[in-house]
Design a protein that fits this description.
The protein is α+β, with helices and mostly antiparallel strands. It has two domains: 93 residues, no CATH class; 47 residues, no CATH class. Helix content is 34%, strand content 20%. It has six helices and five strands, in the order βββββαααααα. The strands form two sheets. It has a three-stranded antiparallel β-sheet. Strands 1-2 form a two-stranded antiparallel sheet. Strand 1 and strand 2 form a beta hairpin. Helix 2 packs antiparallel against helix 3. The structure holds zinc ion (ZN).
């Protein structure tokens, strides 16, 4: 929590989100027996910062579109929000909030995550955990490898 990532990657366009103010977190909500059920959780560019003319927000859906600035989710209150969703089981697939928590709170994870498979295939580290739950040493090795190999 002391060293959050300073940049993120947009789920829609794949370009860098430079600052918290430039990002939005969005998800869909449908009601199931009076309980909200969330799905399609994404991190995208805020419209004014999108490199795309039509923006990076996901296409409209019949479900209710929920969204908040990325800055709202960083820090302890954001962590608590995600923990409440896990406690209440609001997401249809709990891997969605878990993955987003890693992206927001595990140092280096966001920039390393698309390189893990290639780094492992190149013997950068030997996985000894569930896939995606890598240590800081493994994440740093992956980032170093990606930089040396000019992967982006
Ligand atoms: Zn984008």
């Amino acid at each position: 929590m002391n060293n959050p990532p300073s940049k993120w990657i947009c789920d829609t366009c794949g370009e860098i989100i430079e600052k918290p103010e430039d990002g939005y977190i969005e998800w869909l909500s449908r009601t199931d027996n009076a309980h909200p059920r969330y799905h399609r959780l994404v991190l995208v560019h805020h419209k004014p910062k999108s490199p795309r003319e039509r923006g990076c927000y996901p296409p409209k859906s019949k479900d209710v579109d929920m969204h908040m600035p990325l800055s709202h989710f960083l820090g302890a209150d954001g962590l608590t929000w995600f923990l409440q969703q896990l406690s209440d089981n609001t997401f249809e697939d709990r891997e969605e909030p878990i993955e987003m928590m890693k992206r927001l709170f595990v140092p280096g994870y966001e920039m390393a995550r698309k390189h893990f498979d290639a780094a492992i295939a190149d013997d950068v580290f030997e996985p000894n955990t569930k896939p995606g739950y890598y240590s800081q040493v493994q994440i740093k090795a992956t980032l170093r490898w990606a930089e040396e190999n000019h992967q982006d």
